[in-house]
Write a structure and sequence with these properties.
Keywords (chain A): Membrane, Transmembrane, Transmembrane helix
Organism (chain A): Candidatus Staskawiczbacteria bacterium RIFCSPHIGHO2_02_FULL_34_9
Radius of gyration of chain B: 27 Å
Oligomer: heterodimer
Protein name (chain A): Rod shape-determining protein MreD
Order of helices and strands of chain A: HHHHHH
Number of helices of chain A: 6
Strand order of the largest sheet of chain B: 1-2-5-4-3-12
Shape of chain A: globular
Number of strands of chain A: 0
Distance between the termini of chain B: 85 Å
Largest sheet of chain A: none
Distance between the termini of chain A: 22 Å
CATH topology of one domain in chain B: Thrombin, subunit H
Largest interface: A-B, 36 and 42 residues
CATH class of one domain in chain B: Mainly Beta
Structural class of chain B: alpha+beta
Number of domains of chain A: 1
Chain lengths: 173, 279
């Protein structure tokens, strides 16, 4: 229980710091006006390893942090991330078989699909609420930038969280 | 038979439980989102307030690292840029000298220059605390407590326009840059020669920190390098605030108006302080 509290606290702080880095540090390193979405990357890594459904909680918290630093209403990122949460579960069910064979391809494919859908959802909500979020034609640049950071983040998290992940797998068995 | 009926009952109970669980989650979520939006101003203001010291650290370190890499990568192009600047400087000097001679000769233009020098803005200095280049907006550290109101223009110390205030919190304000796709500015071309007719147009945002000039009469003489300023036709915007420089003119016969690509002269990455024109 104590470990769980420490884990949640650290992850929350990490999300907060990443959202600050994203809004103040990364704009200096934009490519065609695009910066990586570090908060989304960490959320997706956690979602990937999640067996207990705790990503539902993270989707709300991460969505809240993204909405705070976005010129828009609250709820846009929260709902978009919840859709991604459900979508990941559905895709996992249908693509389970190819996971082992071509893991990297599966990983990049899954992340790309979810990232593009997330961007489209945020854009669609922003259109409805007439906020100033823009979907640039350079979405592909943004996707490439995010994949480059997602892959190391994935393996680092896998390395750190592996015992916990395996433990959950055994419990399921 | 009885066992099957029991199984069906258990299944229905499980389904109901799941349905209730999902419904409760949805209701709680909707309530949370509603509450967040009701207290949006207070929540965002507190968040900016708490995080502004950290944001300043990240922003200044980002700026330093960016400048370091920029100077390293651009070393080769510095000489070329320097030559261009020298050339441009000479052109500007010659323009100033022609302006001065015209001012001596023409009393009305002298008065206009006097007025331009003497115009008084009430300005409020503020610091950029958040950049969102992808969405072309910034957050500054002055808000309603400092007298900031929606639609007030934000400029640099050289009177280059950045954008307008769109949302005001107690201690912070959101500013959409002129490059934001929702931004439209009434503008005119600034000529040093007062005999030339004033060309009016509209500067629209293209996103990604770029803008373009639109709605210019097709027979207008727009040239590369012309300077665009605000026209002053919009009530809250003073005239003469610098917008940008014409990069290239697109005169398509099929289109009813002339358009031009514009290099905006604001620089969100290197400027820390901006000024809000409050009056």
């Amino acid at each position: 229980m104590k470990n769980l509290i420490i884990k949640y606290t650290i992850t929350t702080i990490l999300f907060f710091v990443l959202s600050l880095i994203q809004s103040s540090f990364l704009p200096f390193f934009s490519i065609v006006g695009q910066i990586p979405n570090l908060v989304f990357i960490l959320f997706y890594v956690i979602l990937f390893f999640d067996n207990r459904g705790e990503s539902f909680f993270w989707a709300i918290l991460v969505g809240f942090l993204l909405d705070v630093f976005m010129p828009s209403y609250f709820g846009i990122s929260i709902i978009s991330l919840l859709v991604i949460y459900l979508l990941k579960k559905i895709l996992d069910y249908f693509l389970k078989d190819i996971q082992g064979k071509y893991f990297i391809v599966y990983l990049i494919f899954l992340f790309s699909i979810n990232f593009v859908i997330y961007s489209l959802l945020v854009y669609a909500f922003s259109l409805i609420f007439r906020s100033s979020y823009e979907l640039s034609l350079s979405l592909m640049v943004s996707l490439a930038y995010n994949i480059i950071l997602f892959l190391p983040a994935f393996y680092i998290y896998k390395f750190i969280a592996r015992p916990d992940y395996l433990e959950n797998q055994l419990k399921l068995l | 038979m009885c066992q099957t009926a029991n199984e069906v009952n258990v299944y229905i109970k499980k389904q109901n439980f799941l349905f209730q669980k999902v419904l409760t989650r949805i209701i709680i979520l909707v309530l949370v989102i509603l509450l967040l939006n009701i207290f949006q101003l207070e929540i965002k203001n507190s968040f900016y307030h708490v995080s502004s010291p950290l944001i300043n650290i990240f922003k200044s370190s980002g700026n330093n690292i960016y400048n370091f890499f920029q100077s390293s990568f651009n070393f080769n192009s510095l000489k070329k840029e320097n030559d261009n600047l020298k050339e441009e400087n000479q052109k500007l000097l010659s323009e100033i000298s022609s302006l001065e001679s015209l001012a001596r000769e023409n009393q009305s233009s002298k008065e206009a220059l006097e007025n331009a020098r003497n115009r008084n803005f009430s300005i409020l200095s503020s610091r950029i605390i958040q950049l969102d280049i992808a969405n072309d907006y910034i957050v500054i550290n002055k808000g309603s407590e400092n007298g900031v109101k929606v639609n007030m223009p934000v400029v640099s110390s050289q009177e280059v326009i950045f954008g307008k205030v769109v949302k005001v919190y107690d201690n912070f304000s959101e500013v959409i840059l002129i490059s934001n796709k929702n931004s439209v500015l009434d503008s005119k071309i600034q000529y040093s020669d007062p005999t030339k007719p004033v060309i009016h147009g509209v500067v629209k945002g293209k996103g990604n920190l770029s803008v373009y000039l639109d709605l210019v009469k097709p027979d207008s003489q727009v040239n590369q390098g012309d300077i665009l300023v605000t026209s002053g036709l919009e009530g809250n915007l003073p005239s003469g605030l610098i917008i940008g420089k014409i990069l290239s003119v697109n005169n398509d016969d099929l289109k009813p108006f002339l358009t031009a690509d514009v290099l905006p002269l604001f620089d969100v990455k290197s400027v820390d302080n901006v000024f809000i024109i409050t009056k």
